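HUMAN: Mind making up another protein with tokenized structure?

ASSISTANT:
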Amino acid sequence: MPDKSIYLASRSPRRRELLRQIGVSFELIPLREAPRYPADVDETPQAGETPDAYVLRVVREKAQAAVGITRARRLAARPVLAADTTVACDDAILGKPANAAAAARMLESLAGRTHRVLTAVAVASGDDIVTRVSESQVWFRALAPEEIRRYVATGEPTDKAGAYAVQGRAAAFITRIEGSYSGIMGLPLAETADLLRCHGIVLP
């Protein structure tokens, strides 16, 4: 029976949960095995890079890095899935906040307005990499400074693009969504399933 599992190049528990939701069997290939190790992919935006170009560049580099790891470890050949999410407010790229103060500033910039959430997915087989991008629009209501302070104090904004989790307490800030809910969480399932089918992964 052919091997229908994949490698997942992500440490995100949300992406693991979403893959299990659609019945995908996977093995983790974490790109950074411990915080003390340097990152395999530099996620710093380049000068003049748009959010759309940024998220595609980063996801391709993640996929390439993960393929390199599988080769170095002499692992069985399987498709490698990588994903990257960024929040775009106008032309500003809002990645993961460095600290509580940065998280508060991001939330202040999102309050009372609309922003885009871009999640790029890449599936690599050897040197061949195919990508898809999901774009969603999210509307935040106005937020009082005390609301932002309390939310940041929960720790939920840590390690979240744009400093919030749509599936968490920040759901109380959101008045409207257009696009993919799973994409906002970090892995657009329709696009992911399409890419996997193209690589011979038949979903239940």
Residues 33-38 have pLDDT under 50 and may be disordered. The longest helix spans residues 51-72.
